[in-house]
Specification:
Layout (H helix, E strand, L loop, with lengths): L2 H20 L3 E9 L2 E8 L5 E8 L14 H18 L9 E10 L5 E6 L4
Parallel strand pairs: 3-4
Antiparallel strand pairs: 1-2, 2-3, 4-5
Length: about 120
């Protein structure tokens, strides 16, 4: 990925985190990594719902929308990573409000702004 693409991706993740925080979510982890992959955002809602959020940023939809980039294989990997995060970061602790998987689709808008769509319960 180009440096410009990496910067856009980082901006997309930062904007997604800001949107969640503005909605009352607490960020528990950003870019959590283990040998099997990475979780973009792990959040907790005011009701205690743990949210694992996959942020996809695309410059154009030439190769599909950002949300379409979350394939079945990616979903399986994200679920495995979420289980690893829970076992590592919260062993034995249950999420009182449950667990949810979101996808955040980010695209450039006018004037350098980012368009952000949070798809709650995407899978």
């Amino acid at each position: 990925m180009s440096e410009a693409g990496l910067r856009l991706g980082a901006r997309g993740e930062a904007e997604a985190a800001s949107r969640y925080q503005a909605g009352g979510y607490r960020v528990l982890a950003r870019n959590w990594r283990c040998r099997d992959g990475e979780l973009d955002l792990v959040l907790e809602s005011e009701q205690g719902v743990l949210v694992f959020s996959e942020v996809k940023t695309r410059r154009t939809d030439r190769f599909g929308t950002p949300a379409e980039a979350v394939t079945a294989a990616k979903v399986r990997r994200l679920r495995r990573l979420a289980a690893q995060w829970l076992a590592t970061e919260r062993p034995g602790v249950k999420a009182p409000g449950g667990i949810r998987f979101d996808v955040v689709a980010v695209t450039p808008g006018s004037g350098g702004r980012l368009e952000v769509e949070i798809i709650e319960g995407a899978f």
